[in-house]
Amino acid sequence: MSTEALLPLFQPFVASNVTVPHTTLVEASYNFLKANTLPSTVNHCIRSAVFALLLAKRLPNFSSLKLDAETIVVSVLLHDMGCMFLLFSPSSFLQSDAENLTNPS
């Protein structure tokens, strides 16, 4: 993906030496997340993406692999979207469905 002419969405996390890649796909994923979820979910997903990049960089089992940072960030940014659509859909979402989301067997 092209990174030209895109302003940074996220400032570099200097203390952890983690930089979130800024591509067209990351920007579209972030905008979709922001438009369709609560601010607390947006913040959770951003923190999770940074933590995933940090783990990929520092854990021995992953640091030697050539993992694509863009794929990691997009995956983590969108990881709660299914829950949000279920929780806020006008369909007959039952309390038992919510319990299944929070207490998987």
Question: How do the helices and strands line up, and which of them pair or pack?
Answer:
Layout: H1 24-36, H2 39-58, H3 60-63, H4 69-77, H5 81-88, H6 95-102
Helix pairs in contact: 1-4, 2-4
Give a quick set of tags describing it:
single chain, 105 residues, mainly alpha, 59% helix, globular
Provide a descriptive summary of the structure in words.
This protein has 105 residues and is an all-alpha fold. It has six helices and no strands. Mean pLDDT is 76; it is low at 1-7. The radius of gyration is 16 Å and the shape is globular. The protein has one domain (17-92).
Helix/strand structural class = mainly alpha
Instruction: Supply the number of helical segments.
Output: 6
Beta-strand fraction estimate: under 5%
What's the helix-strand series?
HHHHHH
Spatial separation of the terminal alpha carbons: 38 Å
Strand element count: 0
The radius of gyration computed from the alpha-carbon positions, rounded to a whole number of angstroms, is 16 Å
Largest sheet: none
Give the helix proportion (percent range): 55-70%
Average of per-residue pLDDT values: 76
Short recap of the structure:
With 105 residues, the chain is an all-alpha fold.
